[in-house]
Amino acid sequence: MKFRTDRATLLKALAHVQNVVEKRHTIPILANVVIAVREGTLSFTATDMEIAMVEEVPATIESSGATTAPAATLYEIVRKLPEGAEIEFDHPGGDAPLKLRSGRYSTSLVVLAVEDFPSMTTSALPVRFHLSAVQLRGLIDRTRFAISTEETRYYLNGIYLHAAESDGAKVLRAVATDGHRLARVEEPLPEGAGSMPGVIIPRKTVAEVRKLLDEATGDVEIALSDTRVQFQFNHVRLTSKLIDGTFPEYERVIPRDNSKVLRVGNKVFAEAVGRVAAISSERSRPVKLTLGRDLLVLSAASPEQGTAIEELDRERVTYESTPLEIGFQARYLNDITDQIQGVDVEFLFADGAAPTIVRDAGDTSALYVLMPMRV
Amino acid sequence: MGALCRDCGATPADGRPSCPACGGRRIVCHPELFTLAIAHVDCDAFFAAVEKRDRPELADRPVIVGGGARGVVATACYIARLSGVASAMPMFRARALCPDAVVIAPDMAKYAAAARRIRALMGDLTPLVEPLSIDEAALDLAGTEALHGAPPAVTLARLALAVEREVGVTVSIGLAANRLLAKIAAGRDKPRGFAVIGAEAPALLAPAPVGLLPGIGAVAAARLAARGIRTLGQIQRLGEGEARALFGADGPAMVARARGEDARPVVRGHATRSLSAETTFATDLAAGRDLELALWPLVERLAGRLRAADLAAAGVVLKLRTAGFATRTRAVRLGQPTRLTETLFAAAAALLAREADGTRFRLLGIAAQPLTPGGQADAPDLADPELPRRRAREEAIHALRERFGPGAIRRGRGW
Question: Is B136 noted as a catalytic residue in this protein?
């Protein structure tokens, strides 16, 4: 195998696959990346046995072949080469070391045989549909903060993606919850997704897909079975196992009859929450919301550090129901306000102890449910 | 440098080998002896000591308290320990190591009575007594000097003498600036000891093995050793990033503890750290289903204890002992505190399923740890729409048992 490519292209590809590489080195070869030239195309492949990533890289190819080299070392070497450098890879085959040359620099890397590299078993992916990068970003960003890290309930450690019906319209829905908050986001159902099974996409996969989306434009092809999901970007294909579990019947916990409506400017609200919560270094302390007619008072108290209070009045606040006191974790409030693009955020309360709905007043595609804390 | 005679409580000028007042040779010296106020008091071989007290003819014999055909050593006296007998060792192995030992079945009521008397003596010194188990406690004696007319060290020496005189067993005392160091000090001079750790703590701890630190058990120690970390000194020098990589979020706290820092206050009467239930099988079990069947009644017992103590489990610890006497403990943190039988069972059964690999087990146990106040149990949960019904079911079962007795209603699984 012999080819030449430029540093910038290579660095980007290695950065992608590097993320997937198993860092705990339980199986040595999983720390390696497969470098392969087949049918005139150069590709890099890495896997941790849960996720596999394949990236095609433009190169000037002289001969075919394949081997595996340590991903982290390769990445460091390429990163330290001067900008604009051209790099030549040369591997005669078998156990022979991989030679890299760039200008007057050359290195010889110990390889592990490509035949020993585990391939994630691929099964047929019968469901296929397209989402724009913007849509997929929206689904992920507005749900991922609510993904649980609790190991006993592994089925909450991802985003539940499924087809559903919302007010008569067919939608693709992403849901995540950790028991304290729940995020539900919808996009119109893409063609081909109607028959999809409900799948739980693991947290790490979500994170890797989200990184790739930073650079992606246009459409992403998503292919699914009930055990695998695959995201195909321009030159990158990411395949992942799914979480084998049953996501809770989340519709049952979304309140239907919350009638006390608060509408407040999202930016002023988010900033006030941050200021009031700053009194306590303990992140789990609640911020108390005290509501009167067109009046919202935010307050927080810390036994060690004192108290803080901020009032928002009718210029920013609309509230016409009976007075109410309710507390939420500041971080949970800010996780939601961070995702609201519109001018106003809307709260729908039942009482001070019941789940509360939060949403963008100008956008019905996302809905959040928050459990209050005792204050 | 302060000096104190442990036999009479006199505070002689320093540098003398024996006490000018009573001639005693048990003199403890330390520059901070009369300013430190946090103590750890630990009874020496407590169960065995109580038995020897009641049967003076055993004074010079090796005594092992423990029992049953398949039991383990609860306590071995210091004479038996010379033969290699240790707590939690299977009885047959203890007998093999020390064939002439006198083996006595535990009489918990008797030990509890002795423990209560010791605790009462402690309670006379300070209200801040935190029992840590039946035979050890942490004491905060700060501000008691005026009350007792003597600094904490002297008060503690008098306590040790009072316990010997009135209860008939010996204690070892650790005196330091915090609970962690006091506990470590108490272990340095056993039995009938009195050790002080002051500002020299970081240097003193540096060469000690990592396992000295409470919270680093055999498994963690092996994991650290694999990375070349064997002494507390190596942990003391870790940067914040390295500490987090090794210990997770607890990293910086671990480094502080390795330096002997500990901010935990002594809390009055905070006795219960964990609640548990365990059973030794009549015959060893290996099948996952058999183990699961054995788990259910333990979980029911544990849930009952949590309810009785108005506590909840924030985590579950599963304990297994193999036919070959290797003990496995597996712990998991729960998303939120619970005391529902079904929730506890689900968490424990998941741990159990991973261990049921065909190994034969002789003992199964489950513990709730850490504990939280009962009021925090089973708060509404967005990811668990069934929770309100499970809660109602548990309340109904509890109400029936309250009224008609524990056997009044059982779940299908419990038959």
Answer: yes
